[in-house]
Amino acid sequence: MSTKHELILRYIEGLAVGEKISVRQVARALSVSEGTAYRAIKEAENQKLVNTIERVGTIRIEKKKKENIERLTYAEVVNIVDGVVLGGRDGLHKTLTKFVIGAMQLDDMRRYIDAGSLLIVGNRHKAHELALSAGAAVLVTGGFDVEDDAKKLANELNLPIISSSYDTFTVATMLNRAIFDQLIEKEILLVEDILTPLAETITFFPKDHVGHFNEVNRTTAHSGYPVIEKNGKLIGIVTSRDAVGKQESELIEKVMTHHPITVNGKTSVASAGHSMIWEGIDLMPVVNDGGILEGIISRQDVLKALQMTQRQPQQGEKIDDIVKNQMKAVSEQPQNIEFTVVPQMTNQFGSLSYGALTTLLMDVGNRAIKMRKRGESVPENMTIYFIKHVQLGSVVKVEPRILHMSRRFVKVDFDLFSETELIAKAMVMYQLFER
Q1: What would the DSSP string read from start to end of 338-405?
Q2: 382-421 residue pLDDT tens
Q3: Close Cβ partners of 383 (under 8 Å, ≥ 6 residues apart)
Q4: Paired strand residues for 427
Q5: Which of 17, 279, 365, 405 is deepest in the core (most CB within 10 A)?
Q6: Domains along the chain?
Q7: What are the residue boundaries of the CBS domain, all occurrences included (predicted)?
Q8: What's the pLDDT tens digit per position in 134-180?
């Protein structure tokens, strides 16, 4: 049976794109408290089903697919630029394909404006009408108002006119940053991107017998299987280790592992993989907020996903990417790394930041381990027990040394030099993530 929270989310998902909703309306429609409705609407906002705009309200927007996540809705634009909607409110749910800065003559502007774009311009009234007639929305910078004819046209065409007090350069920078951030988000693999869905997952019920499990296990040879109730709620997991030596007539509920470790579809693959290593498990059920099984992920799924992401071109550059781009292998000792301290790697005092240093150490250690042993590794703990000031522009050499390697753990020691001076010492413990 679905929870009230799930019912509200399904209700919101079923609304027409562009429809306005409110806490009171949802509470009345589904006979729930306003507090329950408010929490569900907030969750819908996290899932990008709705967008809340100050002085406008909450509207249903089209949920963007991963491949189109870099597109912004006009509703999101309003929030990014602290804007005010002057007209065309009914079009706020639409997505924009590009934005155009109107720093040109009207005749030249026609070549760049097309349907689905956003014209960023000041108080140029002719340009406003030109953009709307071409199927584009308008973002007026400098906090200016627009003429009534433009507002009327915007309402007729359902194309928003947004006014922002920021200047054109600032607005363009803010939108560019938002698209850039979404490109990074697009690159982050989530569990929902790699899971084996419920329809393809073999499951057992608590009243099934071990004999039935043995038959299934002989044909599939999987490492484990979720155990669910009739309503799909996960209650356990059963593996061949649980069933070995048990009577064929024994019930699954008697031998299964109760309250297994689970993961949510919105969790990153990297985080799920770390949990699997930490807990020493090969299979992890994926459940929703109500505990209903949505699918499973295996250690092999996670490993393949991590290897795939490393081979993908990066579209949005993160701080980690900036740090790693500075790293160069030392030719005579390829396990050693040199890097130059650039402004993005410094703290407020112009010295190498602790965050940049830890990123470098973890990546250099991973490289050293891969040169010795195939497979992925995940840092478990780190100790930096000596560090000196490293100023901007310094060239630093990192020398990793594997002290001990077992089947599951690797201990790596690091020395960092600037020219010939020792500037830092550290030790990192890694867990090996093998097939």
Answers
A1: EEE--GGGB-TTSBB-HHHHHHHHHHHHHHHHHHHS-SEEEEEEEEEEEE---BTT-EEEEEEEEEEE
A2: 999 898 888 888 888 999 999 998 888 899 999 999 888 8
A3: 426, 427, 428
A4: 383, 413
A5: 365
A6: 1-62 (1.10.10.10), 64-187 (3.40.1390.20), 192-307 (3.10.580.10), 318-433 (3.10.129.10)
A7: 195-254, 256-314
A8: 999 999 999 899 999 999 999 999 999 999 999 988 888 888 877 76
